[in-house]
Design brief:
This protein is mainly α. The chain has one domain. The chain is built from 15 helices and no strands. The longest helix has 25 residues. It starts with 10 loop residues before the first helix and ends with a helix.
């Protein structure tokens, strides 16, 4: 039975999801606090891995096509939007073009679930080719001289390869791969990530925006190097994700429960921040 078919919950993944959603809540909280270098640096670190690994798991455990699940996500998106910035149903189209800041992930998730439907036959026969093509689009779309922030087009395209990667992988494969890599090798691989992050923060005052993948490269201070930062981000996400899979204990009840209800935690905390802001 594949990972997309099993109904048995995997404790370690729930724990990982709990840790990730709390890190997302922390990064969202930092955005409403007074601006500081520490806040910006912390956001840059969190944006290296939290959303990426969450998208990977979303693809891994996304049913081939589930109208019910898609309806829940769509309904959550509409309900939150109506409770916050859009009090009228007539503004729903505008909500998709310019959704509340904390709803971009749900909007992209809707798009990913729809975009992958016509790719099912090709994924079964040529998964690596489809993944490679999506990765090329992810890296190069930042050069498009278009307002890619509208409707979260940029984030949808940039992160779609991670959704596809999750779709073609199984949890036993990922766990086995992580187990084969020694912990000290991952820690050594993480060392240059820290150096690059420090140098990049010195060069980019808006580094967290680059890692957040909201805009195209021309919105950044050094557009010629933005594609390298995007490539670095995906590499760093892989290293940190493997490190978390190896080290994060699976038996933490709080993280496990939080991971089981990650959507409710995400929406609840986002709405609380909206009220406080």
């Amino acid at each position: 039975m594949t990972n997309n078919q099993t109904k048995t919950r995997i404790t370690q993944i729930d724990t990982l999801k709990g840790f990730l959603i709390l890190s997302v809540c922390l990064s969202n909280t930092l955005h409403i606090l007074p601006a500081s270098n520490l806040n910006a640096y912390t956001c840059s670190v969190l944006y290296l891995f939290n959303i990426q690994l969450f998208i990977f798991f979303s693809g891994m455990f996304s049913p081939r096509f589930s109208p019910k699940r898609l309806g829940i996500i769509f309904g959550s998106f509409i309900l939150y939007g109506l409770l916050s910035n859009y009090p009228s149903l007539t503004l729903i189209p505008q909500m998709f073009l310019n959704p509340p800041a904390n709803l971009w992930y749900l909007e992209c998730l809707i798009f990913w679930k729809i975009m992958i439907i016509p790719l099912y036959p090709l994924l079964a026969r040529h998964p690596k080719k489809i993944l490679f093509a999506a990765a090329i689009v992810s890296l190069l779309c930042g050069y498009l001289p278009l307002p890619l922030e509208i409707g979260n087009i940029s984030r949808t395209l940039v992160y779609f390869p991670l959704f596809i990667l999750g779709r073609i992988c199984t949890w036993p494969q990922v766990k086995n791969f992580a187990d084969k890599i020694s912990l000290h090798r991952l820690l050594w691989a993480l060392l240059p990530v820290g150096y690059i992050l420090i140098l990049a923060n010195i060069a980019y005052s808006d580094l967290y925006v680059v890692f957040y993948n909201k805009f195209n490269y021309f919105h950044t201070q050094w557009p010629d190097f933005a594609i390298l930062l995007r490539l670095f981000q995906f590499t760093a996400a892989g290293i940190i994700s493997l490190l978390l899979i190896k080290t994060l204990p699976a038996g933490n009840r709080f993280l496990n429960l939080t991971g089981r209800h990650s959507l409710a935690v995400y929406l609840g905390w986002s709405y609380l921040l909206f009220l406080l802001n």
